[in-house]
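TEACHING EXERCISE
Course module: macromolecular assemblies
Task: Read the component lines below, then compare them to the predicted structure of the full complex.
Student: A.B.
Group: 4
Components provided:
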Amino acid sequence: MTALEPMNALAAPATDHPQWIWRNGELTGWRDATIHVNAVGHASVAAVFEGAKAYRAADGERLLVFRLDEHLRRLYQSARICRLNLPFDVDRLRTAVLELLRANEYTEDAYLRPWAFPRGLIREQMVPAGADCEVVIDSWRFRSGLSGTRGVTAAVSSWLRISDASTPPRVKAFSNYHNGRLALMEARENGHDWPIMLNARHQVSEGPGACVALVRDGQVITPSISSGVLESITRDTALTLLGELGVPVAEREVDRSELYLADELFFMGTAWEILPVTKVDGLIVGDGSPGPVATALAARYQEVVRGTGGHPDWLTEVAF
Ligand SMILES: Cc1ncc(COP(=O)(O)O)c(C=O)c1O
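Instructor-supplied answer key:
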């Protein structure tokens, strides 16, 4: 098996760390951002997080954080379902993200990871409802894949996606990634890049870190939000941009065998951006290269995140 690539496959190596982490209201030096070993373990089960990106604007003069408010709102939604108390409001976390990007003097694309975890030494297996939380924001540089024409291979996993009836996939909790990790290890073991998981109804759900869509006869089809998927901000962005491009879209249940008849297949997520799939379960998708719809969508996405494609309401500016 190949070593597991991080979800954010184009991330800078972990040794390339920023000077500052934001922690509980303050910029904290990288080396000082530590906790006692007893604070991991059961506490991690209840931890929720977000993944957002700041792109360097095409004019080269500022960073643009993409859909920051939507990401922060989703962090609060995850916390609400997990009954965690975040001691900061959205306004404070928005300011914190901007403070952090400035403090670390980013002038290139940067990935942002806000997260919240129960404070203190948790020895109980079940972190009680209403537990106080620490809130941390980490960041690192990443290399966008939007300009490239890369494609990946995928395979339907034998591991089913977690369901709303047990472990809601709309919660972005670290513990949910146990499910995606099992599927990813299986896919790598079998020589594929990424898994696509089916839900409890054996319909298509999503990948371990991104939603999926297929193109058939000119229409983009993506599993509905109640198919066992995260309420993805990229998915929402893609559906809006595809509408603007005049491509018809449908959100509905998707059968596994539809993947095999697709003209195009692609993942969509903050980390993976728009990532074409060129082979699924050993079958070549389309002509085996990224197709026209995914390519046009990636180009349009790139314009928007870099500030030349409209939707200024999706962009939070950080001047250099
Ligand atoms: C399981 C899963 N699905 C989908 C997504 C895509 O969500 P978004 O577009 O909001 O990044 C992610 C990424 O965070 C994810 O982890």
